[in-house]
Design goal:
With 427 residues, the chain is α/β, with parallel strands linked by helices. It is 45% helix and 22% strand. The protein contains 18 helices and 16 strands. It has helices spanning 17-28, 47-61, 66-69, 80-89, 100-103, 105-114, 125-142, 155-168, 192-202, 205-215, 250-265, 281-298, 301-309, 311-314, 326-330, 367-385, 399-403, 408-414, and strands at 7-12, 40-44, 71-74, 90-95, 117-120, 145-147, 171-182, 190-191, 234-236, 241-245, 271-279, 319-320, 333-343, 356-365, 395-397, 418-426. A hairpin with a 4-residue loop joins strand 9 and strand 10 (241-245). Helix 4 crosses helix 6 (105-114) and helix 7 (125-142) packs parallel to helix 10.
Length: 427
């Protein structure tokens, strides 16, 4: 992607909890830019905080030159001109400012209007789908690519389904994924920014349903056997643990990708179910109690205020205002296992029962602040380096739709987010 812009990448919100780790990941990946170099800058509203982020990154990575070689741009969500100025200087803006429902749209608007591509790591379906509804046509006119959910939500899930489809060598018709998160001796937790996004999202389900009606979509055709319904809590024979439906954006993102592949590329759509493994019966009891409290409190403004004020208490320590320590992150990992079924090339999906099964897996380091920056940065580098492999026209895309024909999976494999076949396709 040749560009006359000052910077290949600008990280907006670089001083936020996630943003600081994105800064470090970009600094590790500069040799992967066009022609072996990456021109980049960081942006936010406080020069002092941004300088501290560069100092921390320089110390962590042993790269003192970061403090003088990386430019700082001042940009504020409440200042449209500052966002426009930032966007005019960037080929791609990586936006790390959440909750996106409050802070995401001004950045996308500035990017689209000023010709900068935009990548975010939102796990908020209402925001992601709203941006598609409102900006897809303008982005297409401007030749701008807006790719949402390029972090843990939802690159492992979305690209994992695509990887499974490629490995089946037939017609993949249904996939169920099971997420497992592993903690080290220091335990694990998540910064409460994710908690806040969940609170606002679950309290606003009616508006999400109304938003989806505006698209006027027809249901995707069901190919093969219809995927089975699961309970709110169930014992999974696949992973030998109790599991619950995954509450993040993965189902929404994967479905949008499958719709794009069906409508634009005439490919058979894949049904998808996303679940999270929670362990044994003690974990189930704790989860059910926390879930009951959450649902009771999230319906009322007073309850939502309590949930946001005391995330650690209501989540049994899983969400905190401080976020995980580096020691906790280094000891944590994730795996997402995909159980797929479909048809061999000699079978008719409209006539026969599925005759093939496959199991694949995506695994990697700590999901929120190690794997997410890796996924976001590699998505950006792919967009920079492979313009002929992405969709021909601009628009608002899911990762799977944008990177379907690129080398993103191979790039992620080289950076520790690994895609592999566990059980080869069987007839």
């Amino acid at each position: 992607m040749t560009t006359s812009r000052t910077y290949d990448l600008v990280i907006f919100g670089a001083s936020g909890f996630t943003g600081q780790f994105v800064v470090e990941e970009v600094a590790r990946s500069t040799a992967e830019g066009p022609k072996g170099n990456l021109k980049w800058a960081i942006a936010g509203r406080s020069r002092e905080k941004l300088e501290k982020v560069l100092e921390q990154a320089a110390e962590t990575l042993g790269k003192p030159e970061l403090k003088t070689e990386v430019d700082i741009l001042i940009a504020d969500i409440s200042d449209a001109e500052s966002l426009a100025s930032m966007s005019r200087q960037a080929a791609i803006v990586l936006t790390c400012v959440g909750p996106y429902r409050f802070f995401g749209e001004p950045v996308i608007k500035a990017c689209v209007e000023n010709g900068a591509h935009c990548i975010d790591i939102s796990g908020e379906p209402q925001f992601l789908e709203s941006m598609q509804l409102h900006y897809n046509n303008l982005a297409a006119e401007k030749g701008v690519y807006v790719v949402g959910s390029c972090g843990f939500d939802s690159i492992p899930a979305d690209m994992g389904v695509i990887y499974t489809k490629e490995q089946l060598k037939g017609t993949l018709t249904a996939v169920e994924s099971f997420l497992s998160v592993n903690s080290g001796p220091e335990g694990s937790c998540i910064h409460d920014g994710t908690w806040q996004s969940a609170i606002y999202g679950f309290s606003d389900q009616d508006n999400l349903r109304n938003l989806r009606r505006k698209f006027g979509y027809k249901p995707l055709p069901v190919v093969g056997s219809k995927i089975k319904r699961r309970g709110a809590v169930f014992y999974s024979e696949e992973v030998q643990k109790y599991a619950i439906p995954f509450m993040g954006s993965d189902p929404s993102v994967v479905k949008r990708t499958q719709r794009y592949l069906y409508e634009e590329l005439q490919e058979s759509p894949v049904q998808y179910g996303a679940f999270a493994a929670v362990g044994g019966i003690c974990s189930v009891i704790k989860l059910m109690f926390a879930g009951l409290l959450f649902w009771m409190f999230v319906k009322f403004s007073f309850g939502r205020n309590l949930l946001m004020k005391y995330p650690k208490w209501f989540s049994f320590g899983y969400f905190t205002k401080e976020g995980p320590t580096r020691e906790q992150m280094e000891g944590s990992s994730f795996s997402m296992t995909f159980f797929g079924e479909g048809y061999s090339k000699d079978k008719d999906p409209n006539q026969d029962k599925p005759n093939m099964k496959i199991v694949t897996q995506v695994k990697g380091p700590e999901a929120g602040y190690i794997a997410t920056p890796i996924a976001m940065v590699q998505a950006a580098i792919t967009l920079l380096n492979e313009p002929h492999s992405i969709p021909k026209k601009g628009g608002v895309y899911t990762p799977g739709a944008a990177f379907y024909k690129t080398s993103l999976i191979e790039r992620l494999n080289k950076h520790g987010v690994q895609f592999s076949v566990i059980t080869k396709p069987e007839v």
